[in-house]
Every structure is written in structure tokens, then in C-alpha cells.
Amino acid sequence: MKCPHCGYDDSRVTDSRDQGEYIQRRRRCERCEQRFSTVERVVLPTLMVVKRDGRREPFRREKLLTGLRLACQKRPIPVGELEAIVEGVESALHKLGQAEVDSRVVGELVMERLRALDDIAYIRFASVYRSYPDIQAMRQEMDHLLMPKAGAQAQDKAQDDGREEAAPRGGREARGGDAKGEE
């Protein structure tokens, strides 16, 4: 591996870490003794994405990451989570075993992961990806997104109400006195 500091062609690996989809190596140049890091990744055949209009373009993880960053802008989402989504989507696409994949498949894989991560980012991404024709269509998607949560919140409230009724009451009424303090 060529040293980025002096250009010498010989370096020694001092540490290797398997990161799942890639291996990160720490190296030291044999001439200038400077340290640097490299990343090894298996080179897979170029995956082509078939766009809605029929055009074909190579899958670019940077483009996907840029779209995710825009959807997650000003949201409390660590950058590592976005990288993990890109890794997961790319891995899932390669596991399909096809040379060409519909852009719809890419979008659905991203939205599935974003929905589990952050509702606002999901809606932002979906609004661009699905190109809602009007605000009513977008509202239906938001209602669909909130439906499972609204049901769970109603169920939680019903359970809380049941606990309140079953709980023994404290205070003077429970001990036999009235509210004025007379016994």
C-alpha cells in the first residue's frame, strides 16, 4: 500500500479490525514511519438501478447517503445510523442476486429502515420519493404512520385508567374521616 505521506510503496499492517462489511487496517510506512488507515471492501459487480423513466444508472451509496442526510437534517440521528442504513440497503440489494434493481425496491428498503428509526425523517424521505400528488395523499400516509401508535396509546391509557380505579385511595376518606378533617 502506497504511503499517503511520502509515496513509498511498502507499509506494514499494525492492526486489523473486521467491521462486518469491510476490514479497517492501521498501517505504518517503512520509510517515513508515519501511520495511516485503509479500508478493505469486497468489490462486487456494479449494481444498476432502473429509474421510473427507464434510465439505468449505477447504484451510488454516496447519493443514497446524501438523500438520507437531507431527510434527517436537524433530527437527533447519529451519522453512524445513516451509514448502517446504507450498508443494510446495499447488502440487501446484492443479496437479491440481480444485476439490475428497480429504484422502487431501493426506496422501499430505505423507507422501511427510516420508519423504524425516525417518523419525521421517514415522512421527509417519503414526500420526495413517493411524490405525493397533493396534501391529502401525504396526510393519508401520516395517518397510516400514526395509526399503530394511536392504537397503542389508547391501549396504554385504558390500562392506566384501570390501574387508577383499582388502586386503594389514600387520605382521610380511606381512613374513615371526612374531607374537613373531622372524625
How many distinct helices? Answer: 6
Nearest-integer average pLDDT: 83
Q: Quick one: overall form?
A: elongated
* C-alpha termini separation: 90 Å
Number of domains: 2
Q: Beta-strand percentage?
A: 15-25%
Instruction: Please tell me how large the radius of gyration is.
Output: 28 Å
Structural class, by secondary structure, is: alpha+beta
Low-confidence blocks of residues: 163-183
Q: Tell me how many strands there are.
A: 6
Helix content: 40-55%
Strand order of the largest sheet: 1-2-3
Taken in chain order, the helices and strands follow as EEEEEHHEHHHH
For the sheet with most strands, the description reads: 3 strands, antiparallel
Structure overview:
With 183 residues, the protein is an alpha+beta fold. The chain folds into two domains: 1-43, no CATH class; 45-149. The chain is 49% helix and 17% strand. Strands 1-2-3 form a three-stranded antiparallel sheet, with no helix packed on it. A three-stranded mixed sheet has the order 5-4-6. β2 and β3 form a beta hairpin. The longest helix is centred in the last third of the chain and has 32 residues, at 135-166. It is elongated, with a radius of gyration of 28 Å. Residues 163-183 have low confidence and may be disordered.
Which structural traits does this protein have?
3-stranded antiparallel beta sheet; 6 strands
Summarize the structure.
With 183 residues, this protein is α+β, with helices and mostly antiparallel strands. It is built from 6 helices and 6 strands.
